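QA checklist item 7 of 12: single-chain prediction sanity check.
[x] sequence parsed
[x] length recorded as 208
[x] structure emitted
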Amino acid sequence: MKRDNGSGCLGFFVLICFAIGLIYTGIDNWIHSDEIEAKEKQKKQEFVDFWKQSNINFFSKFKCNSSLSYDESKSIKIDKFYIFDTNQDYECNIKDFHQTKINFKKSDLFNFIAEEIKNANVLIWVKQVPGEQVGSYGDGSRAIRLNAEINFINISENTIYKKITVPCIGEPQKEIYKKGYTSPSKNFYFGSLPYDNISEVIKKEIEN
């Protein structure tokens, strides 16, 4: 009886190719290690330049909802504010935060914006939260507009002293496409932050 060594040879060939691939990858990484390290350092520095180190330090200890209480008696006049926003779904991590665009019509109001939280007495957190249902689809799924919940936080007291909600802008998608007819209905959220309206709310708080 003859032995069939074809499968054995094929397995050995695959193993050799795999080993060569590992060796090549290792050599390539070794050759370009300085370049890779330089890119990582540049990326980290760009992150620090964008957010500022003091803000990164602040947000590393910021516990979002778990550490914030709500107390209207802690209301204060805005001397300087720092603003950021989050999507509907987010982790309490600066990498999930965004610097909010402000569209003041009066140029002098921009003097109230602090680049670093340490120079502000009010932190403004704009959260995208579910609003009201504005429509539905054939399968029973719901179109729900997001709202921008503007939270004014007294930094020294770590307390939210005011919440103002404005609807996000945009229209829901006209149709939805699902992979299967048996897929359950769900909520479809839509809307972009209304920067002009957010800016107007902040303006009124400053001038109040």
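[x] summary fact logged: The two ends are 98 Å apart (CA to CA).
[ ] second reviewer sign-off
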